[in-house]
Amino acid sequence: MAGEVLSQSEIDALLSAISTGEMDADELKKEEAERKVKVYDFKRALRFSKDQIRSLTRIHENFARLLTTYYSAQLRTYTQITVASVDQLPYEEFIRSVPKMTVLNVFELNPLEGRVLMEINPNIAYAMMDRVMGGIGSSYNKIDNLTEIEQNIMSGLFEKSLENYQEAWNTIVDVEANMTDFEVNPQFLQMVSPNETIVLISFNTQIGEVSGMINLCIPHVVLEPIIPKLSVHYWMQSERKEPKQAEMEALQKQIRLAQLPIIAELGASEISIQDFLHLQKGDVIQLDRTIDQPLVVKIGDRQKFTGQPGRMNKKIAVQIIDQLVRGDEDGE
């Protein structure tokens, strides 16, 4: 009953049952003690916290969106890929659940150690290959007798999608994904020890009228160097981190090299459109400033300085006299 709030009538009924012997207080204590015991399987060690699993889920949800866009363009048909589940389990348990004949892509994530396994349902793989070869996206399950051409087409189609996987990870770590192997029989794969903990990400995949699963197996040894980066605390620290000194200097250098228009304004005047249309050579327009008043120097469209006209090296120039403060600028 821990965590529950009883009403007064329920408390009275409970005390009455104990006093009459209908309920034994010792049995209640024993039941409460038994509830506190949790079974822990040391063969199925949970090495990732819930926070880290949530981070992995966000990364692969982003990957699923990128993959949906990529395959929609490549296959020119309706494509929808979403994350179905993210679990951690022993490698042996995962490999036993893989069909005897399926599509297996093995790739590395340099500079991380170890290899990652992507298992694609044969129906999905054949539908993709059929679309690439100009078909309607029909699915055939003859994975046990793939031709060399079919293997090259399939492996090439999935290898190109690894660029999206790199992009999904770039918020955490810069990786370079390289395809290392293509198999159809899981018995020929032994990436890690049977008891090694892996993260299994399952994707619901819809290609045209064909649906199936894509499973991504990431061993703990691959993620071990970057596990601290998978916590929300690390992300929040990264967001608050100030720019490095080198980045600040580079930014300041670029700002100093930026070019700005400078305008020395002699004065201004207003005339009617009728007078403007009748202007002729020799006419004089009277400005709103006298010859003894300083010029206004603008940076872009903002008044920043006052100056006086002159010449320098046989060219017209303006000498800066003073800087306009905010009040002077607003009053102009």
Automatic annotation (TrEMBL):
<dbReference type="Pfam" id="PF01052">
    <property type="entry name" value="FliMN_C"/>
</dbReference>
<dbReference type="InterPro" id="IPR036429">
    <property type="entry name" value="SpoA-like_sf"/>
</dbReference>
<keyword id="KW-0282">Flagellum</keyword>
<keyword id="KW-0145">Chemotaxis</keyword>
<keyword id="KW-0975">Bacterial flagellum</keyword>
<dbReference type="Pfam" id="PF02154">
    <property type="entry name" value="FliM"/>
</dbReference>
<feature type="domain" description="Flagellar motor switch protein FliN-like C-terminal">
    <location>
        <begin position="254"/>
        <end position="322"/>
    </location>
</feature>
<keyword id="KW-0966">Cell projection</keyword>
<comment type="similarity">
    <text>Belongs to the FliM family.</text>
</comment>
<protein>
    <recommendedName>
        <fullName>Flagellar motor switch protein FliM</fullName>
    </recommendedName>
</protein>
<keyword id="KW-0472">Membrane</keyword>
<dbReference type="InterPro" id="IPR001689">
    <property type="entry name" value="Flag_FliM"/>
</dbReference>
<dbReference type="InterPro" id="IPR028976">
    <property type="entry name" value="CheC-like_sf"/>
</dbReference>
<keyword id="KW-0969">Cilium</keyword>
<keyword id="KW-0283">Flagellar rotation</keyword>
<keyword id="KW-1003">Cell membrane</keyword>
<dbReference type="InterPro" id="IPR001543">
    <property type="entry name" value="FliN-like_C"/>
</dbReference>
